[in-house]
Amino acid sequence: MSIAADAAVGVAPSAPVDLQIARPRTQRVFDVAIVGLGYVGLPTALAFHAAGSNVIGLDISTSRLGDIRAEAVDVVASDAARLRGALMSSTFDISDDLDLLASADGVLVCVPTPVDEHLTPDLKALRNACAAVVRRVRPGQVIMLTSTTYAGCTRDLLVRPLAERGLEVGRDVFVAFSPERIDPGNTAHAHEDVPRVVGGVTPACTERAVSILERYVRQVHRVSSPEAAELSKLLENTFRAVNIAFANEVADVCRHLGVSATEVIDAAATKPFGFMPFYPGPGVGGHCIPCDPHYLLWQLRAARQDAPVIASAMTSIALRPNTVHRRVLELLAEQGKPLRGARILILGVTYKPDVADVRESPALTIIDLLASAGAHVDFHDPLVATIDVHGTAMTGVSSPGDTYDLVLVHSLHSRLDPAWLDAAPVVLDTSFRLAHPKAVAL
Q1: Is 291 a catalytic residue?
Q2: Domain limits of the chain?
Q3: Catalytic: which of 153, 205, 288, 291?
Q4: CATH for 225-442?
Q5: Cα–Cα distances in Å, from 401 out to 16, 131, 404, 413?
Q6: How far apart are the C-alpha atoms of 372 and 340, rounded to whole Å?
Q7: Could you report the average pLDDT of every consecutive run of 10 residues in the chain (442 residues)?
Q8: What's the topology of domain 19-224?
Q9: 19-224 with 225-442: one CATH topology?
């Protein structure tokens, strides 16, 4: 019976039915599909949904999907609120059914691109994701890589396989690279306020990609090719790596000269031009700075091309935990204690404060170095209960006592109360952020 007929016989009109949502999921058309729901993909999916898009998020990890449904994921407060609303929305869905890729107008690939133990790019996840997209692509779709990778990867993993399927990029399907720009734990910049760089295989590809991105982001910067976009991301994180390595070196110089490195950097940062502050630490972690420059170095090595500044910076970053190890030896020696048998507590093991992520965390290497030298090492981190140190599971202590010979401050989370450090005989601050009278800088 129609709504008009209902009214004629005195029956209250039925609520209008959204025919799109009423369809089975396999028959729905989504504005965008996000492949990979990790630290990049999930916030991206939530940003698209918050801007009004109909979103399908895809991940092959059923445990990750379960964590998302249970809201047991490490995201900033604004994204946690978005997730809570999205899970109750009929225009947001998550699944491990990759066949749903064909139902989206735009597809963004947001999978991890780490390096292996030899610092060689590990492209397995990206190759598999791109192959899955290529197998299911339909004419008219826009496909964007966002994962950080080498220059030319978009052509290698998407354009050529699509051509082998008989699809012409720029006419049948539209392909672009648009690097992600998400900083886990950073609440200073909303996702929609961070400009997106995009480079299409053809001008038509660029414009189609822009039309997808503009569904949520306020500013899009076009470049001439996927390679230009790929290199722009490598430049961003290589720039950070080089400057962090330099800041670490400056910190070592300042300690030798008896001056506070933080005070010197803060003073230099008052200059309104020509200087950007970077701060030292125990090393760098995550899947950006320790990994991304190696995609560039790997590609350059294959072409017998040297990049000495970048290579030196990455070597310095990799060796930074050794500097921490030597400093621990020095401080214990000043107390008349050997490293072997010493009790050491690592305060915070995540790769950055207030983020529950230990990927590539320097703390893991520091713990391994100290334990291998005979020290008894514990850790305390309110965000992480257990860690894997080179194949050995390690559980944190929930209530640190006063029985440690040295406390090493690694990640200074905002929820940590440093007051109990009063009882520690030696406090080594590798974060350069601890305001405590006992703190000794790295």
Answers
A1: no
A2: 19-224, 225-442
A3: 288
A4: 3.40.50.720
A5: 63, 52, 7, 19
A6: 9
A7: 32 38 62 96 96 97 96 92 95 96 96 91 96 96 96 97 97 97 86 96 98 96 98 96 97 96 97 96 91 94 93 96 96 95 95 92 96 95 92 88 90 84 90 88 88
A8: Rossmann fold (3.40.50)
A9: yes
